[in-house]
Amino acid sequence: ILSDVHGNLPALERVLTDVDARKPDAMVCLGDFVGYGASPNECIESLRPRIEGAVANDTLDARVHTGEDSYPLKIPVRHELLLADAREDAEGLEVLLKGESPSAYVQRVTALKLDAAVQRLQRRALPDGVVLCADTTVAMGRTIYGKPEHAQDAQRMLGELSGRTHRVLTAVAAQHGTRRCAALSVSHVRFAPMSASEIHDYVASGEPFGKAGAYAVQGRAAQYIAHISGSYSGIMGLPMFETAQLLRTLGFSC
């Protein structure tokens, strides 16, 4: 299993439950992408439609782990994930400071993530390139809704968001060499009223875990979203308009 769950036990439990049900010969897990098949290569082929549009000039080096062995694998993508080392406290960067506003919080966390990623790039002696980081938070007033810690926490968040309008703030920052720039995308989302059983069933689907505000706009939650004002891609987690602007500022065409 190749995965970056960052201590997200509900996500890991869902994968293991799925494996127990499917009983595949092999599985490859790349973050949120999970592929099953008779062999690791077949798993990759099942994932290929989900990474369409990737440029084959660059590859993400990975290792496929089976029950008895592991070996290197190259998957065509157009970026390399600068994932945190085991000794890094990635979750510690997201600790909320007392009295911090949602906009200040999400921009500070994104800046800290970019600092850590740039240091990672240098420490690993990787080729110079643009380092891009983003962070998303959900807020109503000054109340921040982060990632739910457990099912009850997800139910609480969704119950408070139900029938109301909240903000989704996504900060994005990029650095190339010593040049750095940043932007903030703010969108408004209105949820239709959700019954207790609808909230329960949605949480039971597993989708809320690992998501700010306990929902994914591109997933099952879409059936409860009555209105959006702002950036759909920003609500998903990476505002494309702002990201393209930052890359152009750094001298790259989009």
What distinguishing features does this structure have?
single chain, 254 residues, alpha+beta, 5-stranded antiparallel β-sheet, two-stranded antiparallel ribbon, 7 helices, 9 strands, disordered N terminus
Distance between the termini: 34 Å
The helix/strand series, from N terminus to C terminus, equals HEEHEEHEEHEEHEHH
> What's the total helix number?
7
How much beta, percentage-wise? 25-35%
Shape by Cα distribution:
globular
Uncertain stretches of 5 or more adjacent residues: 1-9, 51-77
Mean pLDDT: 79
The side-by-side strand order for the widest beta sheet comes to 6-5-7-8-9
Main β-sheet description: 5 strands, antiparallel
Q: Kindly state the percentage of residues in helix.
A: 25-40%
> What structural class do the secondary elements suggest?
alpha+beta
